[in-house]
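Structure, all two chains, one model.
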Amino acid sequence: MTTPSRLPEPYGPSSGASLADILERVLDKGLVIAGDIRINLLDIELLTIKLRLVIASVDKAKEMGIDWWESDPALSSRARRDELTRENAELRERLARLEELEQGTLDQGTTRGGRTSPKEGP
Amino acid sequence: MTGLRYVYAVCRPLGAPLQAQLTGVAGAPVKQLPHHGLIAVVSEVPAGDFAEEPLRAHLEDLDWLAATARAHHGVIDALTMVTTPMPLRLATVFRDDSAVRCMIQSWEDHIRSTLERLQGRVEWGVKVYLSAEPAHAAAAAAPAPKPASGRDYLRQRRQQTRAHEDLWQQAEAFASRLHDKLSALAEESRLHAPQSAALSGAAGPNVLNAAYLVPRARSEEFVEVVDRMRDDAAGPRVELTGPWAAYSFVGDLPGEEA
């Protein structure tokens, strides 16, 4: 979640701006004036494909608190570790929930398949 | 003459000096280049990186691109603190100072009218995401009483699908209410392509990706309205970014290809 500066002034140094937001603006908006070095950014096919990939993954990565695109666009090992850690935590949580459910079912004795669990919020 | 001139923005003469230590792309110091009562904000960049061939190659390198984009935006951001800049697109590069002056001269009228239109305004970005959680939560919270029959199974599937469609409709309805409300407060608005819709779905699909041009003086009110609507939104996630320089509102040069 970004924390936008609450007031128009003073400006924080691009506080909370994600790379996707920045790329979207500096590559796609802004005045196009033909300079002496003529490169049409939109002509670069590989760039746009990669860019779409980056923009697609940025929010997810941001949520996980990692900046892999800055160090290694091809998914750094750190990013992979983080992903594993996250997955691990998720699985543990699920396991715990299942165990609780199972416990509840057993406590209820024989009514297997009955609605035993008072809905547990996440 | 070794370096090329990278131009970040054009603006009116600054009422306050730029931060002394402000650096631009490639870590070079940022300078003001005055001409005809306008200022081009430039830095010198090495031809070895910014001539056509190396630049083309660099642009394919995401790390380089990200660093350059951040540096470019950093300069625009610093300018926005002291003036209303007209940002140029990334990698607008000229041979030398006189080529930059030439550019200002040929587009002088357009630049002036654009600066006039943007004067004292900033851009706010608002995105709405279909929160990924409710769908998961719904699936997890009702740990599907094991379907007793095939018919049960199908009914459960239908319910899940319907719940998902409801969420979408709800989020889209909310996004359009929000957009109407914010457009009424803003002087101009732009709808951008949703980010990440096609490829990720990661943080929940992006339902609305909009930019609003708002006078500084009314920005506080704008932010408050977003906050209020955010609180009302049961489900969709609202993200506010800004204030940005008016990137999305500079428009095109007359007669130039977009």
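The radius of gyration of chain A is 23 Å.
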